[in-house]
Amino acid sequence: MRKLLCLLAATALLVTGCAGAGALGTGGRTLVVAIVSNPQMKDAISLKGEFEQANPGIKLKFVSLPENEARAKITASTATQGGEFDVVMISNYEAPQWAANGWLENLEPHMKATPGYDEADFIPSIRQSLSYENQMYAVPFYGESSFVVYRKDLFQKAGLDMPAHPTWQQIADFAAKLDDKQAGISGICLRGKPGWGESLAPFTTVANTFGAQWFDKDWNAKLTSPEFTKAANFYVNLLRDHGEVGASSAGFTECGTKYAQGNAAMWYDATSMTGTTEDPKTSHVVGKNGYAAAPVEKTQASGWLYTWALGIPKVGKNKDDAWKFMAWMTNKEYAKKVGQTYGWNRVPPGTRKSTYEIPQYKEAAKAYAQPTLDGIAAANQQKTMVNPVPYPGIQFVGIPEFQDLGTRVSQQLSAAIAGQTSVADALAQSQKYAETVGKSYQEVQR
């Protein structure tokens, strides 16, 4: 942990252009909110005027960054207690760890003091993933598992039928048949962009269902095991043979754009993708999509569990104001506001049970609402992994070192996808990184 904090302190020097948290703005206080620049978050930024109008004296300043950059800056600021941000967007990877470290405000008193907020309305697995010792330290903005979206029209034209619960081999076979480079349509889109929260999210679910582990129960690194090797070869070869152009630099946003523009027959990714695939303003494939469960190999399920959420750094100076904003962005009414303003397919999914009872949302989301809920419900280690592991997490390894370890391994994976190295060499180098981490935990056990 000391090494991690030193690294984060150095990274914090790169955090520039941010007003101090709780700074005085023109006519009142300014809350600085660090947020990831995904589509649903951009909608929240565009609606900030409604919050400011309802809360005179509070102004919002968003620091919106791509996922990898946001993670680095938010982690550096929070870990070093830099105080740059009043509100931070984090996930179920960070929330329990940071709560245990004393870096986050306990939100239970705030929720209980807010009439109508109703924390019991949160989907139980999402709520638990943001808790430490049964106390919530972050509140979910949207929740997700993973599934496959596919072009029903292209499947029909090719005489193919997508099962409700496909295997990865079936997906690979479909990709081979639907790949049409002349028409500019790849058989599938998968993330290849480096980043522990980018390419490693879908890849690790593939590794899990192939029977692989990052570490065994004794913290022995297993990145060159037959199972991990088979999964890596499968993923890399599928992308190289039938994936999108420029796959080694494609992440969630890039794959979303390619699929929505009609340039891919399938896309395996987060269930929150529907805000992109079903948006009539930007998607060319609305009405042509089907949704199937995350593909499997040896397990019952393989989808991940993830939530982008909001937390308050422990050193925050304006916690009451920060909570007012967070409550506005995560309450029951926010879903209705987004649906009425931007369309019901743009509603942040996967957090509140009540969202799935809104008549307009039920109608708009009928193709994917149940697959989303089913994926979230099945996202646990017992259903998605073959062998027990000593760490929490499905698409990530829930230890502090994974931010660095995962990024390094993702760079090796991306290089293999780009043809710059072999899978065997990429895994051999990755194994060395993982062994160093594993040994530190073995020493603690001794």
UniProtKB/TrEMBL annotation:
Keywords: Signal. Pfam families: SBP_bac_1. Transmembrane segments: none annotated. Residues 1-21 form the signal peptide. InterPro entries: Bact_solute-bd_prot1 (IPR050490), SBP (IPR006059). Gene3D superfamilies: Periplasmic binding protein-like II (3.40.190.10). SUPFAM superfamilies: Periplasmic binding protein-like II (SSF53850). The keyword Signal applies. This is Sugar ABC transporter substrate-binding protein.
